[in-house]
Amino acid sequence: MPLELYIMLAAVMFSIGLYGLATQRNGVKLMMCVELMLNSANINLVAFSAYQPNVSGQVFALFSIALAAAEAGIGLAILITLYRLYGTIDLDNINALRW
Amino acid sequence: MTLYADYAYLIVGLPVLAFILTIFFGWHLPRGGGFLTVLATFAGFIISAGIFTEIFPEKVVHQSMHWFATLNVGILIDPLALVMLLMVTFVCTLIHTYALGYMNGDPGMARYFAEAGLFTAAMLGLVYSDNLLQLFIFWELVGLCSYLLIGFWYRKPSAASAAKKAFLTTRVGDVMFLAGIILLYNNMAKLGLPEGTYLLQFPVIYENLTRIDPTQLTLVSLLLLGGAAGKSGQFPLDIWLPDAMEGPTTVSAMIHAATMVTAGVYLVARMFPLFYAAPYGLLAVAYVGGFTALYAATMGLAAFDIKRVLAFSTVSQLGYMMLALGVGSVVGAAAVGVSMFHLIGHSFFKALLFLCAGSVIHAVATNDLREMGGVGRYMRWTAGTMAIGGLALAGFPGTTGFFSKDEILVTAWEYGAMTHDYLPYIFGIVGALLTAFYTFRMWFLTFTGEPRSDYHKHESPWIMLGPLVILALFALFFGMPAQEGFYETVGNNFAHYGVDFEELAPIGGHVVEHGGEEAAVHEPFIIKILPILVGVGGIILALLFYSPWKKLDIRKFVGEKDLLRTILVKRYYQHEIFTAWFAETVVYGISLIANIFDIRIVDGVLNKISETTLGFANSIRRAQTGVIQNYITALVFGIVVLVIVIKLAMEVGL
User: Fold this and answer.
1) β-strand B61-66 against B72-77: which pairing, if any?
2) Alpha carbon of A55: minimum distance to chain B alpha carbons (Å)
3) What is the pLDDT of residues B17-40, one digit of tens each?
4) Can you say how many angstroms the Cα of residue B564 is from the centroid of all Cα atoms in its chain?
5) Distance between CA atoms of B540 and B518, rounded to whole angstroms?
6) pLDDT tens digits, residue range B556-567?
7) A22–B632: do the CB atoms touch at under 8 Å?
8) ipTM > 0.90, yes or no
9) How far is it, in rounded angstroms, from Cα B383 to Cα B598?
10) Fewer CB under 10 Å: which end of chain B, C or N?
11) pLDDT tens digits for B226-249?
């Protein structure tokens, strides 16, 4: 399979993630979009690593996944706390620090 | 081999150390730690005396190190600086010792000795600075210390205002001095001296005087004279000195004898070649000095505050020193010797007189001559030593004051004979008559007759009388033996730097070989005895008017309400003219305009700038929505635009 397909898949995933980030108001959806973008980058890393006999890309992908897991843990904790305080996770309504 | 000269920095260093110790730990020590200041000053005297034995008569100590740009810090001890060092350390040691007794029991004693120590240090630093800027720094420090000490009893409104007055009046002079320094620096910088030359160092200034434009020199000399007049209380900046009596009497003694006021005269003496080279520079000095000598003496006639009488006499005697320097335009560098001799002699007997006055005030608890009378019966030592000081001040034959003042008057006469300008001489001789008169008026009113109020009668303790006796001995016997050697050494001070006064000679200047047989001017006999006549005559007049054996009543000549007396008591309305008229119309008027300028232009520009910034910020702050989606959208668009721009730029081939 040519490399271009992997890159195209990654680009589509990234775009979907970016679009979701820019349009969605729901905190959980935003986090899912971020996961999408991170994973598109991981696909790129693994694809390049496989086409060029070199494992460092795969190692980076593992790191990235670990980081994404940590980030998701913290993000969800924040969202749960927000829900307890405001009764919603619609970020438009969480405006304590806005002018 | 170690030399005393290697420890020259300690002359200033030790009093500064004493200042630091006393100000932090003084109140834990007996008598406010005053003995530290005494010891530090006395150590300075020992070192100075040691340096004297090492460099007398023809060497100069010069230590210098780089500071920044074309400036340096350094120590320069030549005969001129050395006599000042010896005098300041000696007289200040005695005054500090006396203060141990005089200030005893004052709650601010530690503060007093700390400030007095700093004052001494500043004066000593001023004296042996080797460049004009360093001298100016110490000059300002002296001004600060005088402010602190005059306002020592700061809870008293009159003391606080006197301190402010002294500070502000001398500041007028200081600004002129600073302007003079800047102007001189500019001129020195234009000369294109070799790299690494310190432009404001005295030897460098002396060397290059002939290369500076005479007009500029005149301007510099007049500005420096303004500074000197401020510090030395010369007309018209003399108004602060009588008010400075609000401080403790020991402070007055220090300011009037050893430190502060002598700084002005010292500055002119130090810059004498510059004044000499400047056309009319010395003429201005002679006239300011001569006029002040007479002007202040007349005010001394009517004063009823014992310390103010002495203050007016200080202003007047400093006028004599300036006069002596001023007539140097015909006698050359010898004038420096004459002037400095009077300065040294005056410091002994003026310190003596002030300390005696302090002793009297200590006992009777008033400054007013009208409430004293008959004090001499209970304070024989004070009365005796004060009489000696008075005789010296009046120029009674044989005392120190006689030799120095006589020389000044003779030199002033020579100046008159050479230039047909006898005015300075007339100022001087009339001033001398008045000096003798008011000095003994004060003495008779204080010590003789019947007590005029119910005061506490007791003699001062020996810690105060000791310095009086030592100073009295110097006031009596310093003059004769020191005279010739003094003129010789200090008069030749500038020969160390190769200053050639013939070459510097200004317009209308003539150098007369002074004191030798070949003197160009023959003095008539009357000139030699006139100073004696006026000195003794003044004392006899005071005897006739004010002693218990009086033959004449002053009221027959000048009534209590007479215009003349009123003018003298009011000090020629100088204070009124300065505060009421000058300050409230001229200065206030200028400040009104300055205020408008400040509010409209300076503040206006700043306010406009900040308003513009604020308005701009206000208009764009709505972009900060706090909605994360907006930021991300902006980010994406930004990246897209950036990519397109970079892509296009690469296409074009940038």
Assistant:
1) antiparallel
2) 30
3) 999 998 888 778 777 788 888 999
4) 30
5) 37
6) 676 666 777 777
7) yes
8) no
9) 58
10) N
11) 888 888 888 777 788 888 788 888
